[in-house]
Amino acid sequence: MKVSYNWLKNYIDFDLSVTELAKVLTDTGLEVEGVKRIDKIPGGLEGLVIGKVTDCVKHEDADRLKVTQVDIGTEVLQIVCGADNVKSGLKVIVAKVGSMLYPEPDKPFQIKKAKIRGKSSFGMICAEDEIGLGDSHEGIMVLDEKAEIGSKASTYFNMSCDYQLEIGLTPNRCDAMGHFGVARDIKAYLNYHNKDHKELQLPQMDIPTLKDNEKFSIEVAEPSLCPTYMGATIQNIKIEPSPEWLQTALSSIDIEPINNVVDITNYVMFEFGTPLHAFDLDKIGDKILVTKSTKGDLFTTLDGTERTLNGEELMITNGKENLCIAGVYGGISSGISNQSKAMFLESAIFDSTSVRKTSKSHNLQTDASFRFERGVDPSLTKKAMNRAISLILELTGGELSMGPKIIDSRNTEEVEVDLNIQSLNSRLGINIETEEIMNILENLDFKCQKLNQENLQVVVPSYRRDVYRSEDIMEEVLRIYGFNQVPLPKKWHISFQNKEFENSNEIHRTLSEWLVSNGFNEVINNSLSKDLFGDKLDEKSGRSKVSVLNPLSSELSSMRRSMLPGLLENIKYNQNRQHSDLKFFEFGKVYEKSENGFHETRQLAFVITGNQKPESWKNDSKAVDFFELKSICQTLGNKLGLNLKGKTGDPSVYFDTFQQLNLKKHPLIEYGEISNEVKKEIGFKGSVFAGVLNIDVAMKNRKHKTTIFEELPKTFFVKRDFSLILDKAVNYDSIEKIALDSEKNLLKRINLFDVYEGKNLPENKKSYAVSFVFQHPQETLQDAQIDPIMETIRLRLKKELGAELRA
Fold first, then answer.
1. Which of 23, 283, 438, 610 is 20 to 30 Å from the Cα of 754, by its Cα?
2. Mean pLDDT within 323-342
3. What is the pTM of this model?
4. pLDDT recorded at residue 416
5. CA–CA separation, 475 and 457 (whole Å)
């Protein structure tokens, strides 16, 4: 959003430079992203001064040139000039060496020291077209005798500049979508930090009071979408160009002036943040009806585009035809033109959701819709209307014939928030006295009442729709107090210890965040199910099912004993609907009973099937496999900060073979490929890999790893490789365990980078290619140090695993 430095001064008196103002606004949360200087003429006569020609003689080598001596107050300059009217005694405009001139806006040039026909020239005596003050080039510009030698040309011609500030407005700050709203924050900041007592200055609004015009009616058929509607009619207006001050104000924020009426509505919108709309009264008749559109109707907007209405738009109509898309864009048939003699002026509040939907559906983003989508200040709706009427009467010569007529069905209930002072100081890390807090809030138009020494009741102003919690109030206090004023503590109290999980909800949050970020979808299945594989489950656990006394159906006859059937049914359901790349997880409980009573176990179960990544020109279609599942399980253990050890499990109900990650000899995670028997029973397609994490085991044995920080090594690492031939039954974990046990200090990590089975290998053999990385923190390792370690590892691998080096 763009605001003008000079325009802001209409509402609050301040002596801040533009740089200081930009800092104040940024500190209060209205981040200034850029500042641009605006001059009445290009360059603003910067570097030009008043001089007096003290001597003027003909150039020795040029008939049309003269050599002058010009007094500019601080020195006398020799300047070669070709103007016919230059002579001694004249007061003139002098461009010194280094000054920039803009005879054409896009073609500036710099004045340089020059030698013209053998004579040095130290500047330029200017004509009016050369400095942008006119079109004449018949001679140099001659000034009044009263002009002061050495004074700035910009001062002489009253060339005051302006500055445009580009504010990166966040969506919640709809209250600052006009200059008046920005000025409110400036007032609050200056009154707190400078101990000023500044008040905002509202413009003068002189409006004659008239009775209602019974012939003109306003009706709102959709009060939920238009809670406030105001209208006024003005006769005998004269459409003409706006005065210079109004055109200058709009140009300062890059709004092109059009005519006095349109410019006034734009000016008031950028003043108060409240959009207005002007209709040609002679084109709309004597009625305004605010209602929804009729689906299929055609409507031509001001840009000349014919649009098909969808039946959901809120429209301004006259009961017979559409006049305007409410809050978005006017119609070409009812707009103000140079021939308009009377007008109807609208100021309203439209539902932000309705405006947003309409704006998006028609791809129409206007200044009005931008504001209505975020919510306009209801307290300024009438002020904006009165301000616009006052300016229209003044600048068009019109006469108010009706209004402002108001239809208002708003809920005016105030928002009250309780604020605890101790909580505020604790959260913000500062110590502000209660009186200071009240001072800040009251300068922001919040009303404060002390409930007791520690608590305030705060009434939120109507224009701050984003403030409704105590945390919001704290933010308001902090942005005026100053984020940069919060002191840094002398000592930082930071714990690098992994936080222990106090309850299963924290485990749920931690693991679900990781799973979702890695492409999983969470599901919630019914905890009632049919008793799949009941006999096998009884045999494995030594427990039995928990039956429902009055089941709704045979499919819901017992409490689930495993979460996998539900997830596998989810897989089947989605595969039947042509979704094959699937990742699901579920948190829940499983239920069993024994002689000792009923047992509930909290679990996380997850399944994957299909391809690892969606099909794409840059991705190969690689199916998920056991190793991806293993990586997921190991990562879940790491997210819990637990030391886990792997083990191969015996065949189970759902897996022909599976792996376990154990915590203190207790199985924490079991994972593997779902068996063909289960696949046949449930009816899903392809390979499905699944895992189950026992949350109760994690909670009972939650001793976390300690995070250790070490200085980065100053030496290079050394890498060695083994290509090993082993029995197919040997796991990589066995190699890793032997290697790390053989060298605990210098061996930093090992990595399996290739697995091969097939040609040139004996039957029932496979090849592992393993790298070993060695590093000393202080010195570079030599072969004499590493060779014995590698030999020790080789001998142990041969002795314990039967490993041989591959030729």
1. 610
2. 94
3. 0.61
4. 93
5. 16
Domain boundaries, the chain: 2-39+161-193, 42-156, 217-408, 415-485, 504-700, 718-805
C-alpha distances (whole Å) from 83 to each of 122, 125, 480 are 16, 9, 59
Residue 85 is predicted with a pLDDT of 92
447, pLDDT greater than 60 = yes
* CA dist., res. 692 & res. 346, Å (int): 64
> How far is residue 523's CA from residue 584's CA, in Å, rounded to a whole number?
7
Three-state DSSP class for residue 647:
strand
Q: What is the average pLDDT value for the chain, to the nearest integer?
A: 89
**404 near 417, Cβ under 8 Å?**
no
Q: Which CATH architecture has domain 718-805?
A: 2-Layer Sandwich (3.30)
Side chain identity, residue 562: S
- CATH T-level topology, domain 504-700: BirA Bifunctional Protein; domain 2 (3.30.930)
Q: How far apart, in whole angstroms, are the C-alpha atoms of residue 794 and residue 804?
A: 8
Question: CB of 334 within 8 A of CB of 274?
Answer: no
pLDDT at residue 548 tops 60 = yes
Q: Please, what is the angle between helix 470-481 and helix 179-193, to 10°?
A: 70
Q: Given phi > 0 = left and psi -120 to 50 = alpha, else beta, which region is 372? A: alpha
**Alpha-carbon gap, residue 492 to 399, rounded angstroms:** 69
CA distances from 678 to 568, 682, 685 (A): 9, 6, 11
Superfamily of domain 42-156: Nucleic acid-binding proteins (2.40.50.140)
Helix boundaries (H) for 333-469: 352-361, 367-374, 381-396, 421-428, 434-443
Report how far Cα 666 is from the mean position of its chain's Cα atoms. 46
pLDDT at 515 over 90: yes
Strand partners of residue 78? 69
Q: Which helix (H) or strand (E) holds 109?
A: strand 109-110
Mean pLDDT to the nearest integer, 211-233: 89
- Confirm if 42 and 108 have CB atoms less than 8 A apart: yes
Alpha-carbon separation of residue 355 from 223, 226, 700 (angstroms): 14, 10, 54
Q: Is the peptide bond before 103 cis (omega within 30 degrees of 0)?
A: no
All residues at 6 or more sequence positions from 787 whose CB lies less than 8 Å from its CB, including other chains: none
Domains 2-39+161-193 and 415-485 belong to one CATH topology:
yes
Q: Which CATH number fits domain 415-485: 3.40.50.1820, 3.40.50.10140, 3.30.56.10, 3.10.129.10?
A: 3.30.56.10
The residues that bridge with 163 in the sheet, in sequence order, are 37
- The answer to whether 226 and 220 are in contact (CB under 8 A) is yes
At the second CATH level, the architecture of 2-39+161-193 is 2-Layer Sandwich (3.30)
Query: For residue 21, what is the enclosing H or E element?
Result: helix 18-27
DSSP annotation of 130 reads G
CA distances from 507 to 177, 322, 498, 584, 698 (A): 44, 58, 13, 17, 9
> CA–CA separation, 5 vs 59, rounded Å?
48
Q: Per residue in 151-188, pLDDT tens? A: 999 888 888 789 999 999 888 888 899 999 999 999 99
CB 94 within 8 A of CB 71: no
Provide the token pair at 471: 């945390």
Q: Give the residue from 47, 50, 48 showing the smallest Cα distance to 151.
A: 50
Torsion of CA 261, 264, 265, 266, to 10 degrees: 120
What DSSP element (H or E) covers 462?
none
Do 233 and 342 contact (CB within 8 A), yes or no? yes
What percentage of the chain exceeds 90 in pLDDT?
60
> How many Cα atoms occupy the beta-carbon half-sphere of 220 within 13 Å?
21
Give the range among 41-45, 57-61, 304-308, 336-340 with minimum mean pLDDT: 41-45
Other C-beta atoms lying within 10 Å of the C-beta of residue 450: 13
Question: Which residues, in sequence order, are CB contacts of 807 under 8 Å at separation 6+?
Answer: none
Within 10 angstroms of residue 500's Cβ, the number of other Cβ atoms is 11
